[in-house]
Amino acid sequence: MFPPASRRRFSVPTIRRLVLPCLALAATVAGCSRDQTLPEAPDGPAPLRVLVRPDPIEFLPRNADPVMLDREIATGLAEALGRPLELVFADDFSTMIDRLLAGDADLVAANLTATAARRERVAFSLPYLHTSELLIMRRDDEYRPEVREDLVGVTVTVRRSSSYAETILEVATHVPGLVAEWAPENLAIEDILDLVAAGDARATVVDSHIWHAVEGHFPTLSPALTLAEDRPIALALHPDSTDLKSRADQYLVRRALTAPREEAYRDDLPSLESRGRLRMITRNNAATYFLHRGAQMGFEYELMQRFADEHDLRLEIVIPPNRSELEQWLLEGRGDVIAASHVVTEERAAKVAFTRPYLTVQEFVVVRAADADGVRTPADLAGREVWVRASSPFLAAAERLKDEVPYLRIGLVPEDVETEEILARVEDGTYDVTIAES
Q: What is the per-residue pLDDT for 261?
């Protein structure tokens, strides 16, 4: 029946001015940093041995990310560690974890879902992707399940070692009539999809990011049901490889924040919908965008993710090296929208278009809590030094203060330093005074 295998508090006197954070529109990115390298062996650094799938996905879309992320991450991690990359090819999917534990490789980069069962055997890095598991069937199948309970009598073909098998077996505990059929372990995803397309298998399960990459090659197939959501994809490592896991996690965080994208372009919404992606230019900070335990978070991130979902777009994060380059990158076509608590100013509005405001805030002079009682009016700032970024609207506020307050000085903060870092430096005494939004 089966064919042979082919394939992330301060005291504040006031400056009275309202500012309006908006999304900036017009109408990719810094390369990955190198991590520390491992100690070199006498004849040079030891290779990073990475166990990979027998064959990569054969049917690649124009933008192969995220289908080929495992190979890209393996290459990038080896470079970050300063070690040559050695790919170790698995004979079949079922032996990967056994070979890792046996010492045949340092890690597995094979689109592995970090399931509970696998976590009992190996360690996993931070996720580099979250995906859903889709039930794929023929479009002309007369029986199309809408909920899990409709799977009574349906036979689903997957590899026994796959995360899909765990999902099917879990569903089967609630749907006794669901039948799991085990495909040979050397069959690639496309091979099993071929079986479904040919009518030799009723249904199978595929990760959503893989399906979106290959669906154009299987026009007679379509998703019938989402069986699992938000499944983490990660690197697998030996449980004792704590140092390598730490370094891999550091690399994955840096990669997520600075991953390069494809060519620059400037499109409006209809063309973006055709591309299926929306590039959000932002900054990595505790309010706008950050990673927490591998998940992307932040106010502007969640705002744009909702917009992207409404328009069936995949949200991509683009982070310039510093804030002074936000508008430049937008105008160069390296992103589609700035969502970074970006305040509307006359100078900025002359270069880019803004949406209506989604938040109104105030600007405050910030001093250490111990100094608060001595700073009640602008005049109390005489002889002090206010630290701000040159590209921020706070510079104009500081210059107005300087015109009013004798002997007030202005210090310029590097453009890659975020507001929370400036506040921390005020607190520890590195900077004297700053200005921040409410």
A: 53
Identify residue 50 by its one-letter amino acid code.
V
* Contact (CB, 8 A) for 235 and 122: no
Structure tokens at 342: 């970006």
| 21-28+260-354 has CATH 3.30.70.20 classification | no
| Contact between 148 and 225 (Cβ < 8 Å) | yes
CATH number assigned to the domain with residue range 361-437, chosen from the 4 options 3.40.50.300, 3.40.190.10, 3.40.1360.10, 3.30.559.10 = 3.40.190.10
Q: Which candidate, 352, 350, 348, 312, places its Cα nearest to that of 335?
A: 352
Q: What is the pLDDT of residues 162-175, one digit of tens each?
A: 999 999 999 999 99
Dihedral sign from CA coordinates of 172, 173, 177, 179: positive
| Residue 195 pLDDT grade (very low, low, confident, very high; cuts 50, 70, 90) | very high
If you average pLDDT over every residue of the chain, what do you get? 83
Tell me the β-bridge partners of 223. 136
Residue whose C-alpha is closest to residue 250's, from 129, 128, 111: 128
Q: How confident is the model at residue 121 (pLDDT cuts 50, 70, 90)?
A: very high
